[in-house]
């Protein structure tokens, strides 16, 4: 505190030092774990997307067509993710900015998975499963696309919600979220290791998926105290939708050079990882175990020796190999904060 005194009138003038801004708000570790928990269900959904319908697409379409269908997942992310992010930033709901989209994406995902169960049940109940699978392949593609849209609708606001509350612990929050993602993938690989390819028990597999989604998302919807957003300038819903639609274009156009290089590398790495996931079962089942994947997911007790070998390769690739890879990822995350700080 500084004071200045004048001799003429003995008036004391007090000059206060400039105020110091308070540190950014942070949240406790248990609360951060609660925020990051939905990432487990989200990652399970991505791991399940191809595991559930990949064999059907491989049987109904040529390999190049099946790969094009596989790219629908990352493509929907490039479009839906930024759109939902922009819309959630300007959401004026009294429920908060992020949670309305998390709730909507959760409901949409459950509806899509229930429809997937119906399609799978219809194929299993048909007299000729091969013909039924071919006829319903178009419906499966639509559901596959809608699943990508629904899961991205959860993923974008869930990530932003973590950033909103993490404060100056963004690296720790990212590490926890990534750890939950790896745990979600471990649940999928563990299921496949125990029960075989997911496509052979799709009803139980999707049921597990819905259970984990509800258990992890419901506490966030009920316990996270979001502050409603009050904009300085209110724009119409049409303008908000227009701005969200051009978010991808604006993001690419005004992206700094360094971030542009990072973005290209990230997209290429994502596409490469997606290609690996869609081909690993074929490699281990066909090349490594010398099996035959044609309708190996629906043959049941009448599988030939070649189909059994293919299913064994699928179980090995999506079970044991994935589990080892994910455990290594958890080990890396354990030292990531230290590596970043140093």
TrEMBL record:
InterPro entries: MFS_trans_sf. GO terms for molecular function: sucrose:proton symporter activity. One of its GO terms (cellular component) is membrane. It holds the Pfam family MFS_2. It comes from the Eukaryota. It is found in: Membrane. Signal peptide: none annotated. The chain crosses the membrane at residues 64-81, 101-120, 141-163, 175-195, 202-222, 259-276, 316-335. Keywords: Membrane, Transmembrane, Transmembrane helix, Transport. It is a multi-pass membrane protein. This is Uncharacterized protein. The lineage of its organism: Eukaryota, Sar, Stramenopiles, Oomycota, Saprolegniomycetes.
